[in-house]
Design brief:
Elements: H1 10-22, E1 24-25, H2 27-33, H3 40-52, E2 56-61, E3 64-69, H4 73-88, H5 93-102, H6 108-122
Length: 137
């Protein structure tokens, strides 16, 4: 069984988004940038959890830690998608695409763009098996 990376919850994601936008920040600075009021200790606890999960690095400057992202927003999104595919789509990217098409989340124009991207990537992808087209709905 595959081991999944530490899941990031909605509050953790909210704090990560502030850090991705700002580059780095202290507990007080991150708290001030949030769109809703949270206790200082809540923000501090969640930042410490993210640090333990390996999502943030922190450096002591004076008496306060400055937090910055160890993973980019894109890397984080890829982790979430891989986890979704592994746990809910039986490890199949095709299954995910079929569900997106099934619920009309992807339209024909987007499918055409994806097919073009797949053709471009197929020339550079070191994958063993490459799917060169997407199923049509």
């Amino acid at each position: 069984m595959k081991r999944h990376r530490a899941h990031v919850g909605s509050l953790e994601l909210e704090l990560m988004q502030v850090i991705w936008r700002s580059g780095a920040g202290t507990v007080a600075g991150i708290r001030a940038a949030l769109s809703r009021p949270l206790a200082y200790t809540t923000v501090q606890t969640v930042l410490n959890i993210l640090h333990r999960k390996g999502k943030l690095q922190r450096n002591l400057k004076g008496r306060a830690y400055t937090y910055s992202a160890k993973v980019s927003e894109k890397q984080s999104a890829i982790e979430v998608l891989r986890d979704l595919i592994d746990r809910r789509c039986y490890g199949s990217g095709e299954e995910l695409m079929m569900r997106l098409i099934e619920i009309n989340y992807v339209d024909q124009k987007q499918i055409g763009k994806l097919q073009q991207l797949i053709r471009q990537e197929s020339t550079t992808c070191p994958c063993k098996e490459q799917q060169t087209s997407l199923p049509h709905s």
